[in-house]
Amino acid sequence: MMKILLIEDHFLVRMSQKIVLNELYPQVTIVEADSFESGIAHVQGSLFDLILLDIDIPGGKGKLMIERIRQWRPEVVILMCSAADEQTHALEYITAGANGYLSKSAERNEMITAITTVMKKKRYVSLTVQERLLDTVSTGISGGKTRKTPLGLSEREREVMNMLIKGKWVKEIALDLNLRSNTVSTFKARIFQKMGVTSVLELSKKVGD
Fold it and tell me: HTH luxR-type domain: which residues (predicted)?
């Protein structure tokens, strides 16, 4: 029987996690901990197939939490869950030994994808992070530098920008590019920031100048 540990101090978050986990694995045993030390006590005393770990759990110390868990259970699957900016933290936690990183704002389907992916012993990061990696990957043609458009935007950002200027909504762009709406919204916010605008109208004027 599968056994899963939730190390999360927010009751409502644990409840939503439990709902999804029970749908995925009807026979699952779920253990809850509202602090890192409580979670470690469970790790020391029991075997778990999966741990959902909040990076801001009381008593936790960032990436060191992964190291402590691995000292006791080297093979356990660890899925980090956080409200923090995934583009800032996801890769550093994956590098530190986590199997995946999931935003707490993720929709139900993404949570299911994240869980099923890490349970197959694969790494998981959201499409947002994957797109960011693709945008910043080094290429031989660019001499190891990020490929940028003349406006300083990545190719994907330029693509989204052009569609915004044409009057397309976020959901339409997501459908056309086969991305999640949240991912497109992230690109939109990044474009606005880089271009120094606050609306599509301002963006259109700036690009047209």
Answer: 146-209
* Residue 45: Cβ within 10 Å count: 9
What is residue 46's DSSP assignment? S
Q: Can you tell me the distance from the alpha carbon of 70 to that of 168, in angstroms, rounded to the nearest whole number?
A: 47
Residue ranges and CATH numbers for the domains of the chain are 3-125 (3.40.50.2300), 130-208 (1.10.10.10)
pLDDT per residue as tens, the chain (209 positions)? 899 999 999 999 999 999 999 999 999 999 999 999 999 999 999 999 999 999 999 999 999 999 999 999 999 999 999 987 777 788 888 888 999 999 888 889 999 999 999 999 899 988 777 766 655 544 433 444 444 444 567 778 888 999 999 899 999 999 998 888 888 888 898 888 888 889 988 888 888 66
Give the Cα separation of 19 and 52 in Å (integer): 14
